[in-house]
Amino acid sequence: TLLLLLMPHFAFLQELKRELSNHPKFITLKKGITKNPTTYLEHTFLEDLVMHKSRIWLPDNLKFILLLLQEFHSMPTGGHMDITKTLARLQESFICRNI
Question: Would the pLDDT of 11 be above 70?
């Protein structure tokens, strides 16, 4: 029996992690989750990212959000969609008040 697990891999996640590592809201949330996980039941810290209900949490004023919009709009597989469809695809993997 062969089992295969497919997960999306975003090449630009390393850039996201670099920007988040210096972001005050991210640092505060990461510390809170690490020190008192029972207070943050819907959040986890996984592979240097804060996850909220299985989606990557992003602070509101992150410069990276513009790159995400560009990437998801111009992806070869299903890119160049209208704004509603692009935002819907983004919201499957990321959570942010500005997305």
Answer: no
Pairing mode, strands 43-46 and 49-52 = antiparallel
Q: Which amino acid is at 20?
A: L
Q: Of 15, 27, 26, which is closest to residue 66 (Cα–Cα)?
A: 15
86's tokens = 């692009």
- Partners of 57 in beta bridges: 95
Cα separation of 78 and 68, whole Å? 15
Q: pLDDT class for 28, splitting at 50, 70, 90? A: very high
Band of pLDDT at residue 69, cut at 50, 70 and 90:
confident
User: How are beta strands 55-57 and 43-46 bridged, if at all?
Assistant: unpaired
pLDDT of 72 reads 72
